[in-house]
Specification:
- The chain is of the alpha+beta class and 273 residues long.
- It has a single domain, classed as Umud Fragment, subunit A (Ribbon).
- 21% of the residues lie in helices and 23% in strands.
- The strands form three sheets. Strands 1, 2, 3, 6, 12, 13, 14 and 15 form an eight-stranded antiparallel sheet that branches. Strands 9-8-7-11-10 form a five-stranded antiparallel sheet, with no helix packed on it. The chain has a two-stranded antiparallel ribbon with strand order 4-5.
- The N and C termini lie far apart (90 Å).
- It holds the Pfam family Peptidase_S26.
- One of its GO terms (molecular function) is signal peptidase activity.
- It catalyses: Cleavage of hydrophobic, N-terminal signal or leader sequences from secreted and periplasmic proteins.
- Its EC number is 3.4.21.89.
Amino acid sequence: MARTSAVASNPPRAAEGPPSETPFEALASICSVLVVALFILTLLAQNYVIPSGSMENTLLVGDHLAADRITFAPPAKWMPLVHYREPKRGDIVIFIRPAPEPEPDAAGNPQYLTLVKRLIGVPGDRIHLTNGVLYVNGVAQAAPREGRISMSSDPAYVDNFPSLLPTLANDRGAVDTWVIQLPSLVQDGDLVVPPGMYFMMGDNRHGSYDSRYWGLVPRANIMGRPLFNYWSFKSSESDLEQPGLGAHIAWMGHVALHFFTDTRWSRTFHRTR
């Protein structure tokens, strides 16, 4: 007779859920994200808010830009895979405005002014404007695709640079170094950009306080270039220039109340070029 053996059946196990995360593990995860974000913002990118209309309509007041700080930085052996290059004519660049001394902020503390402009001339270029037309090395340049020409208090100077000189004194009554230096750089009606220096202009040709007024930018002053506009909020220059904690809190409240209606959604992740 055949023999059979009874096999005890094991009851099915209940499905096990994911292991719960301990408070320490949650804190460690948050810290990891913050460290990575801090690394990116500090070494690779930087947040920058457009405070004026000098680059309209390429960049608008209230545009928030993610900026690349690596491409124009000196090459580093510890980052061999990163692409480095020198600034090129036509780049939009972020730089520290050259000045004999830092500009005072609202509280009177010295600070260096960071600007965003388009790079017009590299070392060796010959530059002049005639009747508002920009010439680089004798060739007329097309106006920026999204640029504009607003009203100007001194159209003769901005449209015919460097045949006319800017005002000799600045708004603080000091003699501008650029006015003294400019004639020595002019040859046959052209400004010749010297080695290690760059000529910048805003896309809003009449509404830009740029190299025509304060001079050439040393290579060391160039910090990076904007990559894209990650958020744009309808703003005016006065909105972003109000000093004091109270004004800052009031502006943040305005942003919170009008975030959805005043955000320029069409400019979100808009590439800067």
